[in-house]
Each structure stands twice: as structure tokens, then as C-alpha cells.
Amino acid sequence: MEHENQTVVKEFVLQGLAQNWEVQLFTSALLLLFYVIILPGNIIVIITIHSDAHLESPMFFFLANLALMDIGYSTVVPPKMMANLFTRQKTISYQGCLSQIFFIHFLGAAEICLLIAMAVDRYVAICHPLRYAMTMTRAVCWALVVGSWVEGFIHSMIQVILILPLPFCGPNELDNFFCDITQIIKLACTDTYALEFAMFVNSGLVTATSFIILLISYAILLVKVRTGSAQGKNKAASTCITHIIIVFIMFGPAIYIYCRPFQDFPFDKVVAIFHTVVFPLMNPTIYTLRNKEIKAAVLRLLKQNKVMREK
User: How many CB atoms lie within 10 A of CB 188?
Assistant: First the structure.
């Protein structure tokens, strides 16, 4: 190579979910069916929260933004995966690969920050209920949401900036159905040990630390709600348990992927499917199924649409 930091590889080959085309087609069809069913549900959740006056509390404001982030996150990978499947092509351009990495980490990190903001909201609501309205104002909520997007952008830019100087001059096959740092970094024509460690800290260690902090905070809140009234205790406990479920769903696959050496393991692709497509679409659905106010609001919205169509 004349210039060691010059990228020679112009595209990468994605091996897909399986070597057998029929298996890939069947798996992709299931994912597409799941995607088509759940995606409209998340859109309904966003519309319901923004159109129903009963859902103006900060908790639902954060939930609507979580649904928006999840929709974006789960839309990064499937379009390219489906296009490659039906065109029988397995390639993705160098720029397209970097774009996938950027948006996966941008939206993923933003969601982690938003989950922390939601934990702060629950802390104020449970531990300082009399000051809740003055503390969690609309301006504060917007600041937390915007801060989540900014933190996600900074995290993702760090990942991309670290990858850009890498020389890719030989192998270009990725044993996966999308691009991520754990795959692409192994194809670089240089020693990447220090870079792997930096990315482990930036992705894996930060994710694991946030996971532990969130679990500890919700455990403390669950202990705290025992001293409340029966009605308030049940509602607060139910909300905290819902948040804990989402935390496990969000952080579990991420910790598996990023909190270990950048090597291939048998369940990598299965975990990647749930991490990039299935779990993000389920988050708002779980909130909806476990929250009576949202279920009631959705029913009101559906009844209003039915009445309007009949007129």
C-alpha cells in the first residue's frame, strides 16, 4: 500500500443469517412479518400519547420518545438485509457500512441515556412526589431528551472517527447480516488491540456500568415504594418492574456483544437479530400491555377513528 491509512476495500460482503438461501428467506420472512405487525403498534403509541390529554405526564413523554428511537433503531438494518436477500446480492459499500455503524450506535446510545432519564423521572416521582411537578417540568424533560440525542451522537462519532483511519486492504467478508464494530475491526490490515480496548471501554464498559446503575436504582425504588399507600405502591411497583424488564431487554444483548473480546461465538447472529430488530420494537409494546392508562387511551383513539369513519 502506498498510503497505510488509505482504504482500498470499497465494499464488504455480508454472509447473511445462514449459508442456505432458503433458510435466509424463511428467517427474513418471519422478521418482516414481525416488523410489519409491531411497527404500526409503536406508531399508534406515539400518536396516542401526543393526542390524548390524559397522557401529558413526563413518563409518557419519555415513552413516546423511546418508541421513536426504537423505530429508528430497528429500521437501520432490515432494509439492507431484505434488499440483499431478494436481489441475491451480499454486498454493502464502505460508506453504507459506516452509516450502519453510526446509526446503530447513535440510536443505541441515545436510548441508554433516555432510559437513565426515565429512571431519574421515576426517582423524583417516588422519592419526592410533592416536588415532582416543579422538578420535572416540560423544559427539563426536553433537556433530558435532547441531551440523550446529543450523547448518542457523541458516542457514535467516536466510534466512526476511530474506524475511519483503519486500512482495509484485503479480506472483506463479514460473517453477519449487518456491519458493526465487532466485525469490521477484525478486517483491518493493522494491529487493532489498542483500538479494540478503546471501543470496549466506549461501548462495553459504559453499557455494563449503566446497566448496573439502573438495576441498583430501580431496586432502591422498589424498596422505597413499600412505605407508600396500597394504591400508590402497586402502581409505582408495576412501573418500576416494567422499566426493569425494558432495561434487561435493551442491555442484555448489548452487553453480550460488546463486553467481551471481538471474536465470533455460536449465538452471535441470534443475539444480533434480537438486538437490532426484535427487542427494540417490543419495548413500547411492553409498556402498553402493562399500563392501563395507555391501553385505555389507545381504545379511545380507536373508537374516535371508528366514529369519524362512520360519519
Answer: 19
Give the residue carrying C-alpha cell 425494558: 246
Fold adopted by 12-310: Rhopdopsin 7-helix transmembrane proteins (1.20.1070)
How far apart are alpha carbons 61 and 66 in whole angstroms? 9
Rounded to an integer, what distance in angstroms lies between the CA atom of residue 284 and that of residue 276?
15
Rounded to the nearest 10 degrees, the angle between the axes of helix 21-51 and helix 58-73 is 150
Cell of 30: 418471519
pLDDT in tens, 195-245: 888 888 888 888 999 999 999 999 888 888 877 655 567 777 878 888 888
By the 8 A CB rule, do 80 and 100 touch?
yes
Residue range 51-102, pLDDT digits in tens? 887 888 898 899 899 989 988 888 888 888 877 777 777 888 889 999 999 9
In angstroms, rounded to a whole number, what is the distance separating the alpha carbons of residues 294 and 297?
Answer: 5
What single string gives the DSSP state of each residue in 89-151?
--EEEHHHHHHHHHHHHHHHHHHHHHHHHHHHHHHHHHH-GGGHHHHS-HHHHHHHHHHHHHH
Contacts 24+ apart (CB under 8 A), 37-43: 38/281, 38/282, 38/285, 39/71, 39/74, 39/281, 41/284, 41/285, 41/288, 42/67, 42/70, 42/71, 42/281, 42/284, 42/285, 43/67, 43/71
Give the cell for residue 209: 456500568
What's the rounded Cα separation, in Å, for the pair 248 and 266? 21
Helix (H, G, I), strand (E, B) or coil at 194: helix
Residue with cell 470499497: 10
**pTM check: above 0.85:** yes
Q: Which amino acid is at 7?
A: T
**Structural domain boundaries of the chain?**
12-310
